Amino acid sequence: MIWKLTDDRPIWIQLVDQLTLRIVSGVYASGAAVPTVRALASEAGVNPNTMQRALAELESRGLVETRRTAGRIVTEDQSLIQSVREELAFARMDEFLASMRALGYTDKQIRELLAAWDKKEELV
Amino acid sequence: MNQELITARGLTKNYGSKSALDHIDLTVGRGRIVGLLGPNGSGKTTFIKLLCGLLQPTSGTLEVNGNAPGVETKSVISYLPDRMYFADWMKACDLTDFFADFYVDFDRPKAMEMFSALGIQPNDRLKTMSKGTKEKVQLALIMSRKAQLYLLDEPIGGVDPAARDFILNTILTNYNENGTVMLSTHLISDIERVLDEAIFLQNGKVVRHDTVDNIREQEGKSVDQLFREIFAYGS
Amino acid sequence: MFGKLCKYEFKSIGRTLVPIYLAVIAISILNAFLGMGSLANGYYNGLMSGLSFGRGFLSLIQTLSVIAYFGVLVAMSVLTLIVVIQRFYKGLLCDEGYLMFTLPVKPWQLITAKGVVAFVMSMASSLVAFASIFILVLGTAGTSRVFTAITDPQLWNAINSALAHVSTWPLLMFEFIILIIVSGLVQLYHMYFSMALGHLASKNRVMMSVIAFIAISMLFSFINGLVMIILGNVPSFQSFFRMIDTMPDTQGISLVMHLTFIGSVVYNAIQLAIFFFGTERILSKRLNLE
């Protein structure tokens, strides 16, 4: 996974998004250690303070925890990871639906289109 | 140790009748990476030279760690000028000896490690190295100190993207976390994501000093874009 | 810190001068046995008269080695001067200045280290020159003759009796050594101060340094002359000199020598102080590396 940072939003918020993505997609497995701030910062080419801020945000959301002995780990709370994952999925769906509506489709038509889409893909 | 790392009040530097810095007031804290941004001739190098004691202010005060520039501040500042400052007959090991002799915060094993990562042997002479390698050697020495303040004057000016990445990575992975890094540049897009704060200099005045996050949040654009807008005219 | 500064100064100056020292010694040894020495003591004359072929060749070598000897000797003194100037100019006022003036040391330590090391190396150059002449004398006159000459009891008796007349000779020697040191340092700091003054200019700094050097020289020779004229015209000094004239021989001479040495030391020390503090102030307050 590469770190993609854009110009329009604060970097730390973008880092939060990308770290969350890595956690829900299992790149950083539940219960496993998160790389150090320095390592992450250097990998992403960002300021360690910014990375620290992003990790602190994840900590306050409960996605990562600081263990006295093991350092920083990804939460073992599977249900939390699942719910965040769903939240993200819903957000993606919202975006998708919004763009489809902009094309003039009704929700019903969108569902039909999605059902038919698998076959379409095979045709291509 | 609670006071700010850098405090400038009414700092002014004139060269003859020309004013290079005009009543600068600013403070910079510890553990920050700060960009000193501005077009050529905006006073970046003058400010850095004042901080490391290579110039004396015309008026106003400047303090690092609560001390005016002098022996105490020089022992906690690690300075990378925009040029080679070693005699070229010296060998890589002469350079580490030199730094180890004069700077108590110098970490020789760290420097040797960085040298070997660059493929440099202790007995290699500077004379035989390419310009790019010499610059990397100098950076490795500077970053091998556990300094309070790293002053890097145009560290990425005129280097190719690979060298730029090496330089930024070296800075990020090696600086002392309780220390502050201040680097001057006019190539902002390249370094924006490593900065905590940006100081915009124009004609010797600070026109903006804020955190990069604040700038992005308030302006909805990158520091680089803001820079282009501020300096679009009259620079 | 001062010691470390000196260490690096010796290292960078020695790099250039030590090879030249070795060359001077090597060529004087060569000359002692092949060139001037053999020309004078005729060591090879017998050999050469027996030669019909190669005789011209041998004398050519002798001539060449004589030329090489003087060449190297001149090169050594010129190079010493150049290196001393360069170590200050390039080492403090050009790119290397960025390194030296950001070290955690005071400017006066930098300036003192330069001066002390330059002085020691100038002395070393003079010593090497003397040593080379001595080697040449050894080669020319033969070791045994030189040895008997310098161990000749008559010579030492003469020296002893001369010294006995001047009871204060250890003090005189001491004053003389101090004078050599102070006046040597004055020469060095005269150059340093000129370069510091030249550094104040925004451009043509080398030329401005040369002009400053000449201006300072003229100023001090003017002051020198002025002091002489004033001293010569002050009545109390005139009567003092008349008093010395009437003193018994050696007593008068030794008093004059003491006065000359001490006067010169004081005069040189004043100059040295002006040059040193002038340089220190400029490099502390007005430093502006390009």
TrEMBL record, chain A:
Keywords: DNA-binding, Transcription, Transcription regulation. InterPro entries: Tscrpt_reg_HTH_GntR (IPR000524), WH-like_DNA-bd_sf (IPR036388), WH_DNA-bd_sf (IPR036390). SMART domains: HTH_GNTR. Gene3D superfamilies: Winged helix-like DNA-binding domain superfamily/Winged helix DNA-binding domain (1.10.10.10). Residues 9-77 form the HTH gntR-type domain. One of its GO terms (molecular function) is DNA binding. SUPFAM superfamilies: Winged helix' DNA-binding domain. Coiled coil: none annotated. This is GntR family transcriptional regulator. It comes from Lacrimispora celerecrescens.
TrEMBL record, chain B:
GO terms for molecular function: ATP binding; ATP hydrolysis activity. PROSITE patterns: ABC_TRANSPORTER_2 (PS50893). SUPFAM superfamilies: P-loop containing nucleoside triphosphate hydrolases. This is ABC transporter. CDD domains: ABC_DR_subfamily_A. Residues 6-228 form the ABC transporter domain. The keyword Transport applies. Keywords: ATP-binding, Nucleotide-binding, Transport. InterPro entries: AAA+_ATPase, ABC_transporter-like_ATP-bd, ABC_Transporter_VariousFunc, P-loop_NTPase.
From TrEMBL, chain C:
The keyword Transmembrane helix applies. The chain crosses the membrane at residues 20-40, 60-85, 116-138, 169-189, 210-232, 252-277. It comes from the Bacteria. Keywords: Membrane, Transmembrane, Transmembrane helix. This is Uncharacterized protein. It comes from Lacrimispora celerecrescens.
